[in-house]
Amino acid sequence: MATYSDPPAGSFQLSQLINDTRYRSYTFQIIALIALFGAMAYLVSNLLANLQAAGLNISYEFLGEPAGYDINQTLVDYNSQSTHLRAAIVGVLNTLLVAFLGCLMATVIGVVVGVLRLSPNWLIRKLMAVYVEIFRNVPVLIWILIIMAIFVAVLPQPRDFRGDNAEASMLWGMFAFTGRGFYFPMPVFGAGSGVVGAVFVASIVGIFGYRRYAKKKLFDEGKLLPVFWPSVALFFVPAILAYLVMGRPIGMEYPALKGFNFQGGIFARNSLISLWFALSIYTAAFIAENVRAGILAISKGQTEAAASLGLRPNRIMNLVILPQALRVIIPPLISQYLNLTKNSSLAIAVGYMDLTGTLGGITLNQTGRAIECVLLLMLFYLTISLAISAIMNAYNNAVKLKER
Amino acid sequence: MSDTHAQSVAFVRDTMLPEQAPPASEAGVVKWMRENLFPGPVNTILTLLAIYFIYKIVAGSLPWFWNGIWTTSSLAECREILQGATGGCFSVLTERWNQLLFGFKYPSDQYWRPLVAFILLAVAVAPVLFAHLPRKMLLFTGIYPFLAFWLIWGGTILSPLMVLIGVLAGLAAFRRIEASGFAMAALAGLVTAVVIWWLGGFLASAASGVLALEAVPSRDMGGFMLNMILGTVCVSLSLPIGILLALGRQSHMPIIKWICVVFIEFIRGVPLITLLFVANVVLSYFFPPETNLDLIIRVIIMITAFASAYIAEVVRGGLAALPRGQYEAADSLGLDYAQSMRLIILPQALKISIPGIVNVAVGLFKDTTLVSVISMFDLVGMIRGPILASTEWNGVYWELWGFAVLTFFVVCYGISQYSQWLERQLQRDHR
């Protein structure tokens, strides 16, 4: 019952390349490929001609040369004699630092605001809506600059901490919030602190082990073991005991005012702090909307069904609502993390030395290696985003509704 | 019936009681407040905290607005008048409004031109945004880009006119041969347009005085005008490119698909600021040595590439949301690819993706402030650069940033409200 037959063999005509749908796609693809290669050859030949005219070449040797500039906020050792590569690494770490801190704070603020936007309290609801609308509809660059201006203008200068009745004072003698930046106490690890650390890690492993055991007990025997308080106890008690037994090996170095400035402790410059705050509250406004949408996406029937099964409210939340809401919330949440990481490149506007500030800023201007620097810069961000999207896809596949 | 219970009960009411007003605590404002402001101890505390917070903000900002000074010419003068009292020096806005809106190089006697262009922008965009307006207004929308170019950049009207004629002739040629195949018609239209542009170039340079406005070079654009120009130009250019990219990504031809995928993922993976670096320092290496493209053109190229990748993803979402039956129905009617896309698929897919496209547009408009990082003087660049660095206004942060926040908020909030309204409109259609 063949209803059609193949066209007679050997009757290929050139016009089939255009008119026959079987061959047409090959024609188009070959044309596209030729156009692409043509365009690329054109661009590259222009590039080579321009480079030759300017007496330049493409080379990454500058990465090994001394950078010759200082970076005022570093996570690893760096001085002006270090190489450009080292400066770029400092920048990468600074980018990752502000992105990590920002994601953390944005998630906390965003979840709180998102939940409060659904609160029965009219005033809170409206206040949160105003917050979300204001922050979503104004460029993040403006927020970064405003928060930087607020920090510099409102917070006291280190000299205000001087004297007996100073205008400003440190919080609990440990934290100093100044217009130049924040000073935190720094832990100092003495001999034996490794043991305390090991005990702490072991107790965290213990917490997970205990939780797994409790779950198994619940599923196998139907016995409900307390989980929360034993976890808290496991978290604190062994580490504190080890700390006391080893003779208090971990001390704190407090910042102290010496001369015109604070010395000691951890110093986070105002550029880092304001960038962190601005990125967090800007992204939090978007996350709040995602959280709200995620909670609203779960129908009320789910809560009622769970309640009719006899589950208590906190278990309804943990076992029924959250697992479903998270499936809706997490993909946009991760893309917000991605946005935050990409927006952290605006650090250059407040002088925080992230990768855009070091490699794409001073290194580029000093060496004049524009193409190489911008290429490396793009590759770094591309790697991060592709890594995050890969994680997101893996997560999406893991939580996807398994339908028959 | 009324005496049924006469033996067993002492009294039975046999008429209805008149309806009584609910107790004071269960009606009106009191009930509303009990339910919405003080439903429990936690919420009561939250409400009180919120009221305190609002009080602090109002108490702090009201005198600042109320005592605001609008007429001085420098910060020192303004502080002298205030004598240490709280008050805003809004005079920076009255004195520098022209710089904030138009940048510091645009000739001040020509401000009416961008103003007219932006008022006409509203007219041109209206029929696109609101479907119930007369369709004939779309004609003006088609003419508008050329008119706006002439108004903002100046020069003879012949050059935008010739471009317009080229476009129209190309379109006419396309219509003429459309029946014999989409690809050939598109090629013919393109060739016609290019020939007319080429001829028009000679005409415009020969008769450069015809209806000429004072020419303003691109590098003199600045202030909020620059944000508006970048926003509108890049969004309107990136729409068609984004749609093509989305179609390419959905295509069955692997090479075309992969070209589109690589482009989209690359652009979406890097921050806009690196693309602006490319525009600033790298892009000119890729053009022939004698070309001298303006920074603003290079920036427009990069922002357009950026926006089209995002729009492509939104449109792809719309294409994927269409049921397969639509594609199959188009095929079974015997439509070819171009026809089925143009007549069946895209009208539906674009309708679904309008809210997403509007979101991209808002995000893009906000991102135009990033050009201040590569030393272009848009609104943010003007504030950070010439105004805050001037001796008269060094230190006027709140008034200037407040102005910037307000300007962007009005535009972006307006657009996002429109998007929500549209979403509601579209939802109703499906019921």
UniProtKB/TrEMBL annotation, chain A:
List locations, semicolon-separated: Cell inner membrane; Cell membrane
Provide this UniProt record's keywords sorted from A to Z.
Amino-acid transport, Cell membrane, Membrane, Transmembrane, Transmembrane helix, Transport
- Per the database record, which ranges form the ABC transmembrane type-1 domain? 92-392
| Membrane-spanning intervals of the chain | 26-44, 87-116, 137-155, 182-207, 227-246, 266-288, 374-395
Q: Which GO terms describe its cellular component?
A: ATP-binding cassette (ABC) transporter complex
Name the UniProt record assigns to this protein: General L-amino acid transport system permease protein
Query: What Gene Ontology molecular-function terms does this entry list?
Result: transmembrane transporter activity
Does GTP-binding count among this protein's keywords? Answer: no
Record carries keyword Membrane: yes
From TrEMBL, chain B:
Q: Which Gene3D superfamilies does the protein's record reference?
A: MetI-like (1.10.3720.10)
Q: Give GO cellular component annotations, separated by semicolons.
A: ATP-binding cassette (ABC) transporter complex
Transmembrane segments annotated in the record for this chain = 45-66, 111-130, 150-174, 181-204, 224-247, 259-283, 295-315, 352-377, 397-416
Note the topology in the membrane.
Answer: Multi-pass membrane protein
Please provide an example of a Pfam family that matches this protein in its UniProt record.
Answer: BPD_transp_1
Could you tell me which residue ranges the ABC transmembrane type-1 domain spans? 224-419
Q: Which UniProt keywords apply?
A: Cell membrane, Membrane, Transmembrane, Transmembrane helix, Transport
> A GO BP term, please?
amino acid transport
Q: Does the keyword Membrane apply?
A: yes
Establish whether keyword Cell membrane is in the entry: yes
- Classification via SUPFAM superfamilies: MetI-like
Compartments where located: Cell inner membrane; Cell membrane
* GO molecular function list: transmembrane transporter activity
**InterPro entries linked:** AA_ABC_transptr_permease_3TM, ArtM/GltK/GlnP/TcyL/YhdX-like, MetI-like, MetI-like_sf
User: What coarse category fits the chief subcellular location reported for this protein?
Assistant: membrane
Superkingdom of origin: Bacteria
Family membership, please give it: Belongs to the binding-protein-dependent transport system permease family. HisMQ subfamily.
Q: What is this protein called?
A: General L-amino acid transport system permease protein
